[in-house]
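Postdoc handover notes: sequence design on the structure in folder B. Input tokens:
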């Protein structure tokens, strides 16, 4: 532990705010002084903003003009380790430190004193007279002895008006009390026994428990097919962290997944963890942010941004489905939560578990190189084998151009329905049809603001741009030639597939799972619950179905277009297709019933399709690794994407050309610059987009060189320059 650095009132301090100023500002410490890391309120121009005391002031600002910090906020000071994490993350991602601080201070009402709320609990006196309404109130309280309820909560649970509750208070049957709003989370009990583990699972759990108990840093790849018990195993590591009095964080790629996970945590530890994601209320976020800092939350399950919570003593981070692309944030700060988890853990002596059936090549290679440990769960729990994987050769199927379910797949679905089992049809395309074309002039309807075609969403009766979200009604006449009645959908989306399914199996109950069809994460969760309970015979889904939902009665997976992901020029096209196909196929046959997965493809001999069918994971990764190594691309080389955007195309290009010309700092480290070139999506929201790509050797000091390079030129007003280290997408 380093000693806490104290600053006396009136001495010079440096304060970092989340404002885009590019530097730490000097202030005078507030009356009473403050410590480094303290959250303070400071004047900034005419405003008051929240900042963190970053250390002594730099001293380069004239003393006479210094303003004093207004006050120290009532929040646990930011720990040294967190400040180190933000600085290292900012350096790695070339993101301004202020943007990093913004990620770490997303607590609503940070500056306010803890609010109090009025709570109601059982009092000693009996009511003067019992009514059904009063009896319900007392029953709710008796149900959870010791729990105090907010007025609104109690009145909903007991189905009574506030007046009934107030009446009981007047008679002494209920107590009214003021309690701080941010209460600690219920205590989890890590001593409760988990499920009895298989020998395989027990061995992996023992290794992870030892690692956590050791108290140092380490990263482990936990690889096992879907259903092999990875979750069960890493919950053992969570238990170990809690037993050691440390905190644990489980990152999940999809909020809708967390419902099942929360149930399992409750079954394992007897209470629910804290949740952190976009579906959580502001009040809960504020509570969690405070409680992780004060030690009132032992376990957090959350989305990638949970990595920036002010944990007091984080001992374990689990990144579930570590290969998932949603861990990469590509807005504001560009960072990969998987990599940042490893960085944070290294700084706070925590263990990291990266769990996946189909790890990213990056993680696979780190395990190969011995940087990460690796544990394999071989068998599927309770199921003898993976689903049978077979290709349907679409060249040999007889199918009209406006239909997508081949006769072979039709028969397989019908057979499953006959057995009372569920079938899943997978198509990674939202909406009704990806293209709307005019049969009179050939015009394809595009977005006015983006270089993208509008996608018909028949459910919404609209055309939607998947780049910017712009919507408009489906026109009657072609916007190009004004001919009426000739606009036609081309290609399938899940909604169109649902139409085909409806015609083929009129008796079947069909459910479509696509992120855009649900108003909220909760609605999606509910629908998944309904399906899991047997509420649908045929499920049609986009990639959200690939992400680990348990459908015990699902025995057939049909992939409508296994070739879809292989078409792009993305360096990870093969890897992504492999992962997605394996994940989707893994949905079939979870419980005691064996499953089957059928892949519709026009290229059954493609090496990726063959690797998927052969189930030869290691063979696939080795071959893919060899190709990437030969090409000098990640994970065997480094890349950075540069995205320039602005409203004037020529200006954007000129700036890109100037950057390319002044490539000396990059050449100095042996890096190459490609571009400028129009981005594959050349316009989004009216802004023209131009890309450059930087390639360097794995050992080259890329970030430092990029900083020198970009620092040579001033970005003209109106233009935006974004640097994406280790880019995952190239659109
Ligand atoms: P994964 O995370 O690898 O997909 P899970 O941990 O979710 O696997 O396990 C799949 C299913 O098998 C879950 O329903 C889980 O409760 C069950 N399961 C796994 N291991 C055991 C075990 N040892 N005993 C009983 N059930 C288990
Ligand atoms: Zn658009």
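Designed sequence:
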């Amino acid at each position: 532990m380093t000693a806490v650095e104290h600053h006396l009132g009136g001495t010079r301090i440096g304060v970092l705010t989340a404002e885009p100023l590019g530097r730490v500002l000097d202030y005078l410490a507030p009356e009473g002084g403050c410590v480094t890391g303290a959250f303070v309120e400071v004047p900034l121009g005419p405003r008051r903003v929240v900042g963190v005391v970053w250390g002594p002031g730099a001293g380069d600002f004239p003393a006479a003009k210094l303003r004093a910090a207004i006050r120290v906020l009532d929040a646990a000071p930011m720990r040294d380790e967190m400040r180190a994490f933000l600085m290292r993350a900012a350096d790695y991602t070339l993101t301004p430190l202020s943007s990093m601080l913004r990620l770490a201070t997303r607590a609503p009402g940070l500056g306010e004193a803890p609010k109090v709320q009025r709570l109601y609990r059982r009092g000693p006196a009996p009511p003067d007279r019992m009514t059904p309404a009063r009896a319900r109130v007392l029953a709710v309280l008796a149900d959870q002895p010791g729990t105090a309820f907010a007025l609104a909560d109690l009145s909903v649970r007991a189905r009574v008006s506030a007046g009934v509750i107030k009446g009981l208070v007047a008679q002494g049957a209920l107590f009214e009390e003021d309690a701080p709003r941010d209460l600690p989370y219920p205590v989890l009990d890590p001593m409760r026994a988990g499920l009895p583990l298989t020998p395989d699972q027990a061995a992996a759990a023992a290794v992870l428990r030892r690692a956590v108990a050791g108290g140092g840093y380490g990263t482990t790849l936990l690889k096992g097919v879907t259903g092999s018990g990875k979750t069960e195993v890493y919950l053992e590591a969570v238990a170990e962290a809690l037993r050691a009095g440390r905190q644990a964080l489980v990152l999940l790629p999809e909020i809708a997944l967390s419902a099942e996970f929360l149930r399992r945590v409750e079954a394992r530890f007897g209470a629910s963890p804290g949740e952190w994601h976009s579906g959580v209320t502001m009040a809960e976020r504020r509570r969690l942010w405070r409680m992780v800092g004060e030690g009132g939350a032992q376990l957090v399950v959350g989305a990638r941004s949970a990595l920036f919570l002010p944990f007091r003593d984080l001992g374990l981070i689990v990144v579930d489905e570590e290969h998932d692309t949603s861990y990469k944030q590509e807005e504001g700060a560009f960072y990969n939560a998987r990599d940042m988890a490893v960085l944070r853990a290294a700084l706070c002596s925590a263990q990291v578990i990266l769990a996946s059936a189909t790890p990213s090549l990056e993680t696979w290679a780190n395990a190969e190189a011995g940087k990460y440990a690796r544990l394999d769960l071989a068998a599927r729990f309770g199921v003898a084998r993976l689903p049978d994987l077979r290709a349907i050769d679409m060249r040999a199927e007889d199918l009209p151009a406006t239909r997508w379910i081949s006769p072979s797949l039709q028969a397989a679905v019908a057979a499953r329905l006959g057995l009372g089992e569920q079938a899943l049809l997978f198509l990674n395309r939202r909406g009704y049809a990806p293209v709307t074309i005019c049969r009179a002039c050939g015009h394809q309807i595009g977005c006015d603001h983006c270089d993208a075609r509008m996608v018909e969403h028949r459910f919404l009766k609209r055309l939607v741009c998947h780049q910017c979200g712009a919507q408009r009604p489906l026109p009657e006449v072609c916007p190009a030639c004004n001919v009426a009645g000739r606009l036609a959908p081309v290609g399938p989306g899940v909604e169109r597939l649902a139409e085909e399914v409806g015609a083929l199996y009129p008796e079947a109950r069909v459910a479509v799972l696509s992120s855009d069809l649900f108003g909220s994460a909760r609605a999606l969760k509910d629908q998944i619950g309904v399906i899991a309970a047997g509420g649908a015979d045929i499920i049609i889904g986009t990639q959200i179905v690939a992400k680990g939902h348990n459908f015990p009665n699902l025995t057939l997976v049909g992939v409508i277009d296994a070739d879809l992901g292989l078409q792009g020029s993305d360096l990870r096209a093969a890897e992504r297709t492999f992962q997605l196909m394996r994940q989707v196929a893994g949905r079939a046959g979870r419980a005691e019933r064996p499953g089957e997965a059928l892949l519709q493809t026009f290229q059954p001999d493609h090496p990726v399709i063959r690797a998927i069918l052969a189930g030869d994971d290691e063979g696939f990764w080795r071959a893919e690794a060899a190709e990437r190594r030969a090409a000098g691309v990640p994970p065997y080389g480094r890349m950075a994407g540069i995205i320039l955007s602005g409203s004037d195309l020529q200006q954007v290009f000129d700036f890109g050309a100037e950057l390319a010309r002044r490539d000396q700092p990059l050449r100095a480290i042996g890096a190459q610059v490609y571009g400028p070139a129009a981005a594959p999506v050349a316009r989004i929201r009216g802004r023209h987009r131009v890309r450059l790509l930087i390639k360097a050797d794995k050992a080259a000091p890329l970030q430092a060189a990029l900083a020198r390079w970009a620092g040579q030129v001033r970005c003209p007003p109106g233009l935006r320059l974004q640097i994406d280290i280790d880019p995952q997408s190239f659109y």
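Context for whoever picks this up: The longest strand covers residues 672-684. Don't rerun without checking with the PI first.
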